[in-house]
């Protein structure tokens, strides 16, 4: 079976017309028809037929089976091309969330410089949720990820390094500044400033809110940790943030959570399963492992 034939078939499954497939791939319609016929001849079964009453192509049960497997085959072929290109480029495609990048990555930067790896880094800086998708899709090959619970994923290998505490942050003029600890349920009426869905913080806020049986009143979402902190400083709302992100210079009060949930800021090294790291990527991963000793 040809990969291009499988691409045509998978897109036919999605759009339901030969015309739509031909237009998408910029080919003539007979080219698509011939590709489907080749697949049917190879598999010795009918994959699709024309439903004239609906004006669409209907996929047979055999076609349904092929679509599931072909989708995985095409994804793996794409990843193979990306990994082969990467292997010959000698670049380290690395995912680094902003919080980890600002707080923890500098702790190991001297070793990375000494190993002459800094110039090889191509860094993707965004939240851990997005980086996990980038890793699965082949945009990056190695990442430091934050997660509410230790990561478990069918296509990702992870090595847990450490976990850090979440705290409630507020202005020093807010009533919370007088409390060393608080039950999350008592924050029901408070407006929240939060990091957006690319960060795990929004997920952790949702978990705590669900446990406390209320929907948080989010008045502003941002992808900037500094913006979040400055708005909280001005008493625009309160926030939930990993404790290490608060610096002594921040005009913020920190309040611990009573009876904290298992969700914490867990930091892990992640790669795709079966990813073949070259020598300088292995050296880089070894440098990342040093965080485990430094932070624990």
From TrEMBL:
SUPFAM superfamilies: Periplasmic binding protein-like II, Winged helix' DNA-binding domain. Keywords: DNA-binding, Transcription, Transcription regulation. InterPro entries: HTH-type_LysR_regulators (IPR050950), LysR_HTH_N (IPR000847), LysR_subst-bd (IPR005119), WH-like_DNA-bd_sf (IPR036388), WH_DNA-bd_sf (IPR036390). It comes from Lentilactobacillus raoultii. This is LysR family transcriptional regulator. The keyword Transcription applies. Residues 1-60 form the HTH lysR-type domain. Belongs to the LysR transcriptional regulatory family.
């Amino acid at each position: 079976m040809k990969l291009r034939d499988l691409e045509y078939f998978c897109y036919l499954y999605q759009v339901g017309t030969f015309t739509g497939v031909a237009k998408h791939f910029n080919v003539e319609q007979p080219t698509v028809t011939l590709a489907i016929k080749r697949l049917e001849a190879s598999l010795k079964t009918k994959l699709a037929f024309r439903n004239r009453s609906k004006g669409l192509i209907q996929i047979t049960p055999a076609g349904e089976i092929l679509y599931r497997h072909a989708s995985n085959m095409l994804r793996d072929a794409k990843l193979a091309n990306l990994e082969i290109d990467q292997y010959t480029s000698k670049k380290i495609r690395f995912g680094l969330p902003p919080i980890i990048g600002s707080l923890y990555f500098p702790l190991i930067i001297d070793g990375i410089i000494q190993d002459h790896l800094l110039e090889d880094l191509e860094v993707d800086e965004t939240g851990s949720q997005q980086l996990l998708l980038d890793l699965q899709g082949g945009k990056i090959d190695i990442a430091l990820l934050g997660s509410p619970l230790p990561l478990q994923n069918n296509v990702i290998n992870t090595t847990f390094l450490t976990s850090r505490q979440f705290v409630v942050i507020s202005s020093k003029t807010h009533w919370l500044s007088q409390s060393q600890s608080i039950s999350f349920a008592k924050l029901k009426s408070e407006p929240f400033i939060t990091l957006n869905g690319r960060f795990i913080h929004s997920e952790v806020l949702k978990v705590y809110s669900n446990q406390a049986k209320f929907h948080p009143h989010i008045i502003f979402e941002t992808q900037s940790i500094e913006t979040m902190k400055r708005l909280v400083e001005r008493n625009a709302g309160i926030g939930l943030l990993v404790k290490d992100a608060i610096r002594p210079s921040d005009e913020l009060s920190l309040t611990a959570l009573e009876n904290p949930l298992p969700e914490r800021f867990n930091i892990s090294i992640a790669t795709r399963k079966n990813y073949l790291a070259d020598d300088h990527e292995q050296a880089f991963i070894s440098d990342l492992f040093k965080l485990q000793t430094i932070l624990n």
